[in-house]
Amino acid sequence: MYKWIFGWLLMLVLLxxxxxxxxxxxxxxxxxxxxxxxxxxxxxxxxxxxxxxxSWVESPDKSKAPxxxxxxxxxxxxxxxxxxxxxxxxxxxxxxxxxxFWANIKSIPSxxxxxxxxxxxxxxQIKLIWRPVALEKTITRAEMARLSWxxxxxxxxxxxxxxxxxxxxxxxxxxxxxxxxxxxxxFANKQYALPQPARSGKISWRLINDYGAITQPFEATYxxxxx
Length: 227
Prior knowledge:
By secondary structure, the chain is mostly beta strands. Helices cover 10% and strands 44% of the residues. Residues 158-215 form the Pili assembly chaperone C-terminal domain.
């Protein structure tokens, strides 16, 4: 019985070690400016082991994305750093608004001889936002402040009149936090069910900017007739 308990504890330790290992991706999002043909993101291996790095891009609707990573597959040795080039293939994208994709970077552990070691591949997925040439290179606070709120069909609705994706870090209504506020797409609306429904009230929200930093709070009020 003691052997069984020891084996179980060992497996938990190995699982935790594997889950916290892996490469470090040099960013929480990629903003791809339309004037460029390619951009880059770094990957660093702080471990003492070797990892195989596999990278690809997905469209939200699972269709083929107009981006490729180079190299798509490579070996990253211990304590080494490499740069992934992200190349735009030129397929047409909307010119009046941003387009959202998902960049995937998967760390695959190298084979070991010890069959008692549990190995886990770790996938990092970050937003890839393509920003057309016609738009400003960086979202301004003035653009972020243009979000509007209203009570609509028993839910709180946010409207985004801008051509930019607005990524929420936090959202509070009358002091109550909304779990997982996500983002609102360009020229789109999004609705939230409130934990304590109220037809009017005060809203406070923070966004995540192009550099992955959290903005200062924005505040607004809403009502059934807010615009």
